[in-house]
What we know:
Layout: H1 3-9, E1 40-47, H2 56-69, E2 73-81, H3 93-106, E3 110-113, H4 119-129, E4 132-134, H5 136-147, H6 151-165, H7 189-193, H8 197-227, E5 231-236, H9 243-250, E6 268-273, E7 279-284, H10 294-299, H11 301-309, E8 312-318, H12 324-337, E9 345-350, H13 358-365, E10 371-373, H14 382-393, E11 397-404, H15 409-418, E12 419-427, E13 430-438, H16 442-445, E14 449-450
Parallel strand pairs: 1-2, 1-3, 3-4, 5-7, 5-8, 8-9, 9-10
Antiparallel strand pairs: 6-7, 11-13, 11-14, 12-13
Bound molecules: guanosine-5'-triphosphate and magnesium ion.
Amino acid sequence: MPRARQRQKGLKPFPEISDSQFRPLSANDSLAVATPSREAYLVCALRLPKDASTGAELSLSELERLVHSASGEVVDAMIVRLRAVDPAFYLTRGKVQQLKACAEAFELTGIVFDKDFSPVQVRNLTDEIGTRIIGRTELILDIFARRAHTHEGKLQVELAQLQYVLPRLIGKGFAMSRLGGGIGTRGPGETKLEMDRRRIADRIAFLKRELAAIRRHRDTQRRQRLRHEVTTVALLGYTNAGKSTLLNVLTTANVPTADQLFATLDPTARRAILPDRRIAVFTDTVGFIHDLPASLIAAFKATLEEVLYADLLVHVVDASSPTLEREIQTTEEILHELNVAEKPILRVYNKIDRGLVGTAAHLLQTATVPSVAISALYRIGIRDLLEEVARLTRPPLVRCELVLPPDGYALLSRLHDQAHVLATEYSDTGIRVDAEIKASRLAEWESYRVMHGEALEPPNAQKK
Length: 464
Ligand SMILES: Nc1nc2c(ncn2[C@@H]2O[C@H](COP(=O)(O)OP(=O)(O)OP(=O)(O)O)[C@@H](O)[C@H]2O)c(=O)[nH]1
Ligand SMILES: [Mg+2]
């Protein structure tokens, strides 16, 4: 008998747990769960006749990369074409038997699909095939659970997992609860399996309260930045586009980067000096992916708020990706969902060291949004990028003439801090200054302002 079957046979049925044994998770609980050393997965792209004929291979390669990012090993990949959906299994019985044979032959830890099944379908498939059945959302949630390091990140991932789990609870547990570790068992893990609906709902409410408190703290920090008029720039885009690599080049952030999907989860903000010597804070955000689970977007809204309040969005794209257009579109859709599509955007075509050809070259030539081409890894085009950031975030200036009192040197010094002083003329009647002042600071200087032409023509002279 294949070993995979023996392993499952040895597992005890999921125990009934009484209410008194429940203990809500606390923020300090370890989320780690023991996992088998080798995790072998089969990845499957499901295609119905209505699905576009192309895209299955791309979907498979993305699934493979996601499994690798979850430290799983992909032993085989297949496209499963279906004529219709079987409500009980989604797949036809014939396909289910094929997958069962495959699971036994490869001793699979699980089968990963590029869609999410209904809870009943998951239970039926698990029972029939005898291995873990993993949907795309569960896979992504698993990666997020691995990557969450900060307190906030962990809370957000747990919230997303519980929000995903809650409507999918069937009976007293999950179909998948009977099979060992691996993808889908990290994060709140086994403990989550023991929670009933009410307890999950309580925990969700607790997590939301905790996150709201963190958010208030973030609001305070943001207000401080606003008060000090610090320019804020959010780096965002598809996962693996090179956002963290770029942040490290622009600042001294030292954020870990990796050729993995969702390498970054926790936002990092670092200062950099722009070419016009203004200070800007750059924030690296969680990467996007197409069909990002709604529960994840909801849970990460607080983190993504950095994007909402940024003065400029820097949309980093991997110019060498074969799915570049879809990646740009996905990012734009998510920005739309976040209601920030109207913000100034700079599109950065990264990884041009691999050659700027095909779609990327065409998009750059016909760009309707400000765009630059760079290589973050080889530091190509970084100066141009910073010039563009400076140009797009430059506060509007108003040219005006002021007359300060003859002894107004302190005022003049303050003006130098806030404005671009073009000329100064000292006389017995006062210090005459020609300056470009930030529109936001104009009100402070209104009483010293000389309206152009005011001395030559009285205000009503023009009406005559
Ligand atoms: N060839 C090349 N590779 C790059 C460039 N910029 C980044 N990379 C590589 O692309 C991979 C992903 O880079 P990251 O900076 O981690 O990407 P990210 O956008 O932060 O990804 P997530 O955090 O997963 O969303 C890494 O292996 C980088 O070394 C570049 O300009 N050229
Ligand atoms: Mg990153």
